[in-house]
User: Which sequence fits this backbone?
């Protein structure tokens, strides 16, 4: 399975993080009230811009499989906190909800 994580500004569509273009370690974990997405920032990423737009972020997880259709998981940050730990070089995004779907099933 191939997996790509993308963090975008939901209003303007600006991409802040794209792990296929800038590989970095990340994890997505289910919590009691949503999902915790943690990324270790080892590339040139403008953390200040991400934090500036933290209430307007969408996080996408694209999963491609050899034996089944690709899936897209869309995480909505909404009011979920977004924090950055300078010592760990880690940004943590809490998403309140998500939608998982197969993009090929939504076409005209």
Assistant:
């Amino acid at each position: 399975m191939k997996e790509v994580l993308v963090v975008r500004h939901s209003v303007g569509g600006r991409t802040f993080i794209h792990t296929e273009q800038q590989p970095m370690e990340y994890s997505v974990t289910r919590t009691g009230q949503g999902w915790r997405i943690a990324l270790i920032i080892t590339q040139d990423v403008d953390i200040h811009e991400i934090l500036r737009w933290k209430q307007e972020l969408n996080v996408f997880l694209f999963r491609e499989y050899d034996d089944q259709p690709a899936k897209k998981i869309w995480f909505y940050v909404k009011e979920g906190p977004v924090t950055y730990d300078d010592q760990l070089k880690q940004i943590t995004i809490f998403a309140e909800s998500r939608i998982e779907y197969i993009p090929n099933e939504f076409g005209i």
